[in-house]
Amino acid sequence: MYRGHTIGVIVPAYNEESHVGEVLATVPEFVDRIYAVDDRSTDDTWKIIRECAAASRRVTDEPLDSDGEFGPEIRASIADGGRVGETEIVPIRHEENQGAGGALRTGYVRGREDGMDIVATIDADGQMDPEQLPRLLDPIVEDVADYTKGNRLGDRESRREMPPFRLFGNWLLTQLTKIASGYWTLQDPQNGYTAISQEALSAVDVESLPDDHEYPNDLLVRLNIADMRVADVSMPAMYDDEESTIEYRRFVPVTSVTLLRGFLRRMYTQLSDDRLDPAAVSYVAGLVSLAGALTSAIGVGSSLLKGEASTRDLSGIASAFATSVVAFLIAMGIDAVNNAENGVRR
Q: Is the CB of residue 118 less than 8 Å from the CB of residue 137?
């Protein structure tokens, strides 16, 4: 228990036999329950998780059930406020590989059902310093935020630690996620070191989170729609011999579609409110103007091939594009002001 709050930590793992044991061993002692989710690894990750779980059973002699999990009595004990200070590792294994988002989804559902006040996430690859966990928990405990996430771009030294390719990709995703989610002050959206309150966890329909690495972008959109406060917590990155499991050929198009879908869902929600949101109206105006400009451009292109295009046609297209740009900039400015209180940096 941490400052009067029960804490659950999800450790999603896929083929992390070299790191998962150390990660589980270094999770702070104030954590009440660790959900070690093996996403159908093909190495010894599951074996190591089971061994760590067995070693952590200091609070009870109750054996693991047939699914490799503790029985209902111990699962209910910590959420009731008892047995404080004894970390329990709950081993969970997927029957089929579900991806990074699927592993987090499983842990979130268990943490919500167990009544954990706060559920944090720590990757099993050893990139995250468990000693930083209190910095993620404090804003939620102090009722400053409902969801906190690490930010490796918070200072120049941390940015230097990130490989250039990751740094550029992270910067680009940051800009796109700001537009989609409405959290304009946040950076490093793919950071998997996070914490979420029970209230926020119950408000975002975690069962429908995406399966793969685009889940944090989608989750941020859901949090904004639910009017939750999100805080960036600056912290250093830790890189060793781990390898990224992201398949960029799939990740880029899938994440782009996820962000677009999330943005449209957020706009629809804002337009469906009792009052029309000025930012949503401006975004729609920009989209309409852009659609008109693209349609005109196609027509002019056809005319150019026939030698029938005029300067007036080209001027009209330029004017429509300029109008769309102005509308988008106005929308972004209004959106940033509207969401200023829901995005915080620590």
A: yes
DSSP tag of 2? B
Q: What CATH fold (topology level) applies to the domain 7-267?
A: Spore Coat Polysaccharide Biosynthesis Protein SpsA; Chain A (3.90.550)
First to last CA, the chain: 23
Tally the C-alpha atoms within 13 A of residue 146's C-alpha that lie toward its C-beta. Answer: 19
Please name which of 121, 71, 128, 81 lies closest in space to residue 101, comparing C-alpha atoms.
121
Q: Tens-of-pLDDT digits for all 346 residues of the chain?
A: 899 999 999 999 999 999 999 999 999 999 999 999 999 999 999 999 998 888 876 433 344 454 544 444 434 433 433 333 468 899 999 999 998 889 999 999 999 999 999 999 999 988 889 999 999 999 999 999 999 999 987 766 666 666 676 777 778 888 889 999 999 988 888 888 999 999 999 999 999 988 877 888 899 999 999 999 999 998 876 655 555 555 656 667 778 888 888 888 888 887 876 666 788 888 888 888 888 888 877 776 666 666 655 666 677 788 888 888 998 899 889 888 887 777 666 6
Cβ pair 319, 206 in contact under 8 A: no
Residue (of 133, 123, 56, 43) closest to 91 by Cα position: 56
- Label the pairing between strands 147-151 and 194-197: antiparallel
> Which residue, 131, 168, 174, 134, is CA-closest to 151?
174
Of 170, 280, 281, nearest to 225 by C-alpha is 280
Distinct helix (H) and strand (E) counts, the chain: 12, 8
Residue 255's closest CA among 193, 183, 170? Answer: 170
Cβ atoms of residues 245 and 100 within 8 Å: yes
How far are the Cα atoms of 14, 33, 45 from residue 92, in angstroms, in the given order?
12, 13, 12
